[in-house]
Amino acid sequence: MTPDFIAALVSARWFALLAVALLTLPYWSSAIFKTIHWQSGVAEMRAARLSPAPLFAVLTIAVQALGSLLLITGFAPWLGAGMLGGFTVAATAIAHPYWKEHKSALRIQQRTVVFEHAALIGGLMLAVAVMEYF
Can you give the pLDDT of all 134 residues of the chain as single tens digits? Predict the structure, then answer.
């Protein structure tokens, strides 16, 4: 049985908001960084062979910021989580194709990143359920 103080904590709206803000931290902090350090964001797109790089940088910032905002505010959280989840799938396939890596250590490292990104997607799925509840 869950102790009363834990039940009260996890049923508080602020707790859900904090959890979702922390879950989306990699996305909205990346959007802020790419906005402040524009040339670095564009260089990241070039390194991923995305062209035109400035357009992909703008789209990345928009998806990361808007998706996070929609999920954190609870306004269409399903859309925000879908945006971030779709972005994560695409970014993972582009930046971490472990199946193409021939060196064992690098393959394991890249595969670990893919699994971490899959866990983020699972967290986004849970966040939708939580934000729909509150």
Answer: 899 999 999 999 999 999 999 999 999 999 999 999 999 999 999 999 999 999 999 999 999 999 999 999 999 999 999 999 999 999 999 998 888 888 888 889 989 999 999 999 999 999 999 998 87
Question: How big is the CA angle at 44 (ends 48 and 63), to the nearest 5 degrees?
Answer: 90
Map tokens 């789209």 to a residue: 59
Tell me the pTM: 0.92
Place of tokens 């690098």: 106
**Cα(87)–Cα(121) distance, integer angstroms:** 10
The two three-digit tokens of residue 45, written as one number: 């797109």
Q: CA distances (Å), 113 to each of 39, 52, 89, 107, in order?
A: 25, 26, 12, 10
Q: CA–CA separation, 84 vs 110, rounded Å?
A: 20
Q: How far apart are CA 106 and CA 116, in angstroms?
A: 15
Report yes or no: 59 and 76 within 8 Å, Cβ to Cβ: no
Dig out the tokens for 98 from the structure.
């472990």
